[in-house]
Amino acid sequence: MSDKVYDVRSDETTDVWLSPPWLIKALGDFDLDPSAPKCRPWDMAKHHYTVEDDGLAQEWSGRVWLNPPYGSATRKWIKRLREHGNGIAFIYTRTETEMFFDDVWSAADAVFFFKGRVACHRPDGTKNSSPASASCLIAYGAENVKAIQDARLDGQLVIRAWAMVPNVPHHRRVAFGGCGG
Q1: Helix, strand, coil shares, percent, the chain, to 5
Q2: Per residue in 159-181, pLDDT tens?
Q3: Does the pLDDT at position 134 exceed 50?
Q4: Which one, of 116, 88, 77, lies nearest residue 31 by Cα?
Q5: CA angle, corner 29, sides to 146 and 147, nearest 5?
Q6: Residues 148, 28 contacting (CB under 8 angstroms)
Q7: Quick check: 4 pLDDT over 80?
Q8: Looking at residue 77, what is its pLDDT?
Q9: What does the angle CA 112 – CA 156 – CA 109 come to, to the nearest 5 degrees?
Q10: What is the pLDDT of residue 5?
Q11: Left, alpha or beta for 155 (phi > 0: left; psi -120 to 50: alpha)?
Q12: Distance CA 49, CA 31 (A)
C-alpha cells in the first residue's frame, strides 16, 4: 500500500474528512465505503475499508460511497469509482483539473454542484467551521443520479445526456459532453 493513499499530515491539517451525516442520510444506503477512517463516529456504508485494508487494492461491490482522501491521491480513487461504475463521490469542485476531464466530464453520469460550501467533519466528529473549497457529488450509474435528484439538495444537478433519468424536471437538467440542453 502506498503511503500517499491516505496522508494524514498532522493534528491540524489532514486529508481525511468525514462526510456530514445529513448528506449520507439524504442519498440513501450505500454498500461500501472503500476509504473510511479507522475511527469514525458514524458509518457511511454497510461495509468499510480503512487505510489498513487498502481500499484501492480490495474488491468493490454494490453501491459505493466515496469521500476519498483529499490531495494528489484523489485521482486514483475517482478513477477506481469510474471503473466500478456504481456510486457517488464527494470531492472538491476542481473542474479544471486533468482528473475532472479524464474521470468525470468524460465518464460520470451526473455532477451535483452544491450551493455554498459543505462543512465536513474531522475524524473525531467535530465539524469544520470553514470549508476550504466548494464540493460536488459525482454520480456513476443511473440509480445514483436518481438518488441525488431525490435528495432535493440545494444546488444544481448536471446530468449527462445519455443518463437522463425519467421524471427529472426539465429546469434541473443541463446536458454536458458536447450535447445541447
Answers
A1: 25, 20, 55
A2: 987 555 555 554 444 444 433 33
A3: yes
A4: 88
A5: 10
A6: no
A7: no
A8: 96
A9: 40
A10: 36
A11: left
A12: 11
Cα(142)–Cα(150) distance, rounded to whole angstroms? 12
CB 137 within 8 A of CB 104: no
Contact, 104 vs 79, CB < 8 A?
A: no
> How many CB atoms sit inside 10 A of residue 112's CB?
22
Task: Give me the helices (H) in 61-165, please.
Answer: 74-84, 98-99, 142-151
How many CB atoms are located within 10 Å of the residue 18 CB? 22
Residues pairing with 89 in the sheet = 66, 138
Three-class DSSP category at 100: helix
Q: What mean pLDDT is predicted for residues 18-41?
A: 93
Short-list 147, 124, 151, 125, CA closest to 21: 125
Residue with cell 445514483: 144
CA–CA separation, 20 vs 2, rounded Å? Answer: 27
Location of C-alpha cell 481500499: 55
State the Cα–Cα distance between residues 85 and 64, nearest whole angstrom. Answer: 9
Closest C-alpha to 31, from 59, 53, 69: 59
The H or E element that residue 87 is part of is strand 87-92
Does residue 11 surpass a pLDDT of 70?
no
Long-range contacts at 8-14 (CB < 8 A, ≥ 24 apart):
14/122, 14/123
